[in-house]
Amino acid sequence: MPATKFSATNIFAPSGFEYGKNNVPYSPELAWKAIERSGKPEATQPYTASDGKTYNLYRVMDMMELNKITPEVFTYEYRDTDPVEEELGKLFVDSYNDDFIDPDTDAPRQRYGETVGLLRQARSLDAGAPLDRLGFKGVLQFKQTHICFSLQVKICNILNKGQQHVGEPEKPAKYVNTANSENGYLWDFNQIQSGWDSFDIDYPLPVRVIADVKDGQEKCVQDAKRFYPSADAAQLWLLFTQPATFFYKHRKSVVAM
Known about the structure:
This protein has 257 residues and is of the alpha+beta class. 17% of the residues lie in helices and 23% in strands.
């Protein structure tokens, strides 16, 4: 459906395109231009791109519906650390006070001799406490190969509140996903709620998946070398299949867990 000056999320498609024919190319230029024009009167006007072709804006699937099918394209595993700026597995060999005020001492918490672990709710250091999520660190795993798309990256301040159980005191809405009680009532990476509207970050990140290790070494390396023809084949395969070994070889200070 053609975009209007009121439709918030749109993409450019070539004039005369047929839905379902996979003839809408991904282009960073078009992605940014779509953002610039959306919600403005010029959203209804054709645009001639740098390739000389003419494109028009069309409304896309509702964001909430799009979020539901995101796991078919990729998944995201939260790997936030405590403190967030430190590397997972780092050992504090010197005196270190983190930014968490210990309620028992009313002073910054001392971490000397401890190892940086994953972030847990209420900044707990108890290994049994439920994990927390910020989204500043994580692992993307793509489910489809040879695709290009625009990944909308959002970092949200969740200001509203809700309940885990009826009659209980309210908690920050970040912790009220009643369908996920086994994981601390947290929302997953693609479960943005309609009441969340305070974003520190909200921008598109262009993604192109160029190879898949499941295709085997020869095919995977061949696909990757289409984009990086001067790369060493053996080093590419080491990077794809044994990233810890690869990065340790090139930087001795990296700790991978």
